[in-house]
């Protein structure tokens, strides 16, 4: 995701910026056993998407990458999933004789290559991730034999290969792209080439269940809604492992304005995620999983909001909302090393959004279903998380998405969440708090977030500090938990 996109969508979500102001210190009451339980499909719903050309750099040059991923593995007690792809997958051609993983020229400092080649050792690095990994290959340049050669090498090298994408965000292809063969690019033409390529690649690999299909940025024009029935009609669903959409709620492209208060706001997060509900239904109608194959806060440089603690709060709520809707997994995009506002870590620092990923991963770890407790109309979010066969939730997530920036001169407001039905035997709950001085806080600028008192070291990504819990009394199954503006807490019920 590097180019101009999503301007209209971000405009829609920016309208009415001021309505996040709620009555303060009023609080909200939640019976934790209410809400519709929705299944959690994956043991590690929070994944990473790594931009194709940048992938070798992340694993070879950024020492902390393995520890930052290992922390998430430990939090999920599973393996964090990775997708390698993005805009540059559609600029890349496979060169079986190349001895380095990838070869490219960066045209402007901090930019992305206009074209690149990659060799067999690219897949050795992907294999060394030792976790389920999606590899995004080229369709835009219309070199099917080249993509098949790469796919064969991926299968041969990677025991951990989860799926292959054939093209990135094909809704953005144009008539001048070789795959369009000089025809106007339409959803029908995309579907025709997607399905043809799936058949060719699957047959060359002699593998079913291998393609991550769709990979669309802006449904519904190009969408799973449109593609899935055609896959079914053509009898190609056996080739499809999963469907994927991409999503960025805001954009700084082409003069679009970003807004942190809007990004964080729970009601807007719910509206944004709900707009994908026809996509989830379309995948479910053909019995296939659906993922956000690439996602993050704001395109085109992050617009000044992406590296902040507010973006961590956004991730916490967005992940739980997307999982509640039926997305199996979200792959958060990591772009150009050293020039990536929404990235979770870079060469010198760990960034605030990483804490949101760690929080959401901890909340979902080992859980089998989630129920949204609020109606999505205010800035307060509450989710109940259930382990298998339990009637009382094991964990509750409470998020106060009220915006608390460093320009505020008043003391930090709070909201009291009145929780009930925590269970007759329950006498106290443990609370782990995700906080930072402000929504605008950035670790690299000296305002380090904490989750239960723990931070992550800038150079090693090791956890720093000892884990702290707060204990809240429960009387007759009820407890009151206070959450300050721009904070989230994870409540351990049992
Ligand atoms: C690849 O990109 C470079 C600039 O980065 C350009 O000079 C070169 O002509 C391009 N090659 C092809 C085949 O497009
Ligand atoms: C594409 O079509 C235009 C006219 O519509 C023609 O001039 C051009 O040569 C065509 N290009 C290719 C590569 O076929
Ligand atoms: C098969 O896919 C093509 C697009 O490749 C589409 O035009 C056609 O309608 C599909 N067939 C059925 C029966 O769905
Ligand atoms: C607020 O934080 C931003 C970084 O997010 C920083 O650039 C700005 O200087 C800070 N302003 C104040 C008043 O501290
Ligand atoms: C990370 O680095 C920034 C400045 O580079 C520093 O102010 C901050 O304290 C560091 N945080 C941690 C947890 O190492």
TrEMBL record:
The signal peptide annotation in the UniProt record is 1-23
| Name of the protein in question | Beta-glucuronidase C-terminal domain-containing protein
Q: Quote the Pfam families the UniProt record gives.
A: Glyco_hydro_79C (PF16862)
Q: Show the stretches that span the lipid bilayer.
A: none
Q: Which domain of life is it from?
A: Eukaryota
In terms of Gene3D superfamilies, this protein maps to: Glycosidases, Golgi alpha-mannosidase II
| Organism field | Kwoniella dejecticola CBS 10117
Q: Which parts of the chain are coiled coil? A: 134-161
User: What range(s) does the Beta-glucuronidase C-terminal domain occupy?
Assistant: 382-490
Has UniProt tagged this entry with the keyword Membrane?
Answer: no
Which controlled-vocabulary keywords does the entry list? Answer: Coiled coil, Signal
């Amino acid at each position: 995701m590097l180019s101009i996109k999503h301007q209209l969508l971000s405009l829609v979500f920016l309208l009415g910026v001021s309505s996040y102001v709620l009555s303060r210190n009023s609080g909200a009451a939640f019976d934790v056993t209410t809400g519709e339980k929705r299944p959690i499909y994956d043991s590690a719903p929070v994944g990473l998407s790594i931009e194709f050309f940048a992938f070798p750099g992340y694993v070879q040059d950024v020492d902390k990458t393995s520890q930052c991923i290992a922390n998430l593995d430990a939090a999920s007690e599973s393996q964090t999933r990775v997708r390698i792809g993005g805009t540059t997958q559609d600029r890349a051609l496979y060169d079986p004789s190349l001895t380095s993983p990838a070869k490219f020229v960066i045209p402007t400092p901090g930019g992305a290559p206009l074209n690149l080649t990659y060799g067999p050792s690219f897949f050795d690095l992907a294999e060394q991730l030792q976790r389920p990994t999606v590899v995004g290959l080229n369709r835009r340049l219309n070199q099917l034999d080249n993509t098949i050669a790469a796919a064969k090498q991926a299968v041969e090298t990677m025991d951990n290969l989860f799926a292959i994408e054939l093209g990135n965000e094909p809704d953005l292809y144009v008539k001048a792209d070789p795959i369009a063969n000089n025809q106007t690019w339409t959803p029908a033409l995309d579907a025709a080439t997607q399905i043809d390529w799936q058949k060719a690649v699957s047959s060359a690999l002699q593998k079913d269940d291998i393609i991550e299909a769709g990979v669309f940025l802006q449904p519904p024009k190009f969408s799973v809604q449109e593609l899935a029935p055609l896959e079914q009609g053509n009898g190609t669903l056996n080739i499809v492992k999963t469907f994927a959409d991409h999503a960025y709620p805001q954009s700084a492209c082409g003069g679009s304005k970003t807004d942190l208060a809007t990004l964080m706001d729970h009601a807007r997060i719910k509206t944004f995620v709900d707009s994908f509900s026809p996509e989830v239904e379309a995948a479910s109608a053909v019995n296939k999983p659906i993922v956000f194959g690439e996602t993050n806060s704001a395109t085109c440089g992050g617009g000044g909001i992406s590296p902040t603690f507010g973006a961590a709060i956004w991730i916490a709520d967005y992940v739980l909302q997307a999982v509640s809707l039926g997305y199996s997994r979200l792959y958060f995009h990591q772009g150009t090393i050293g020039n990536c506002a929404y990235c979770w870590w870079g060469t010198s620092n760990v960034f605030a959004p990483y804490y949101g990923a760690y929080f959401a991963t901890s909340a979902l770890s080992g859980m089998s279903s989630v129920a949204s407790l609020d109606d999505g109309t205010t800035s307060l979010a509450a989710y109940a998380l259930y382990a298998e066969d339990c009637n009382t939730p094991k964990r509750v997530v409470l998020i106060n998405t009220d915006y608390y920036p460093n320009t505020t001169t008043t003391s930090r407001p709070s909201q009291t969440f009145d929780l009930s039905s925590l269970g007759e035997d329950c006498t106290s709950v443990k609370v782990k708090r995700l906080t930072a001085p402000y929504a605008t806080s950035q670790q690299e600028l000296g305002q380090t977030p904490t989750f239960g008192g723990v931070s992550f070291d800038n150079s090693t990504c090791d956890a720093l500090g000892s884990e702290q819990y707060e204990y809240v009394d429960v009387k007759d199954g009820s407890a009151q938990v206070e959450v300050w503006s721009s904070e989230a807490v994870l409540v351990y019920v049992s």
